[in-house]
Structure formats: structure tokens, C-alpha cells
Amino acid sequence: MMLRAEFTTEPFEGEGEPPAHALAARDCLLAAGLDPDFGPLGTAITADRERLLPALAEVLDKALAAGASRITLQVTADGDQV
């Protein structure tokens, strides 16, 4: 089953470099061999369930450890259809 996940990490820090918690989240996905669409207001990723769910658990852990105070996550099944 394909999944599409979209998430944001907060706090937002305005203009300039992305905050450490956003970079940590992105880097978890890259380390898992995934190709996230990383942007200033959030990250989106489509992958099979077996690869994405463990990567998302790591994203939550690492982003919180890097200073995220809130993570908003939406997961849609059959992400290749969205």
C-alpha cells in the first residue's frame, strides 16, 4: 500500500535557513532512502507503507529532539492516487 505523508514542524522561524528540527526531519527521510519534497511550510513524501511508517517514527523522534514543539502530520492511504 502506498502512503502519502505531509507534515510541518514548529516553531516557524521566519526568513533564512530552515530550523534545526525541520532539517532533522528531512534528514531522517533522506537517510531512509526516501525523496521528500521539502519546503518552507512543510514536507511531503510518498512511499510504500513498509518504508514510510518506520521513517515517520524516526522523523517524530528526531524533530522533537532537535527542538520541535509541535508536529502536524497527515497520512493518506494510496498516496499514489492523490
UniProtKB/TrEMBL annotation:
Quote the protein name from its UniProt record. Answer: Thiamine-binding protein domain-containing protein
* Phylogenetic classification of the source organism: Bacteria, Bacillati, Actinomycetota, Actinomycetes, Pseudonocardiales
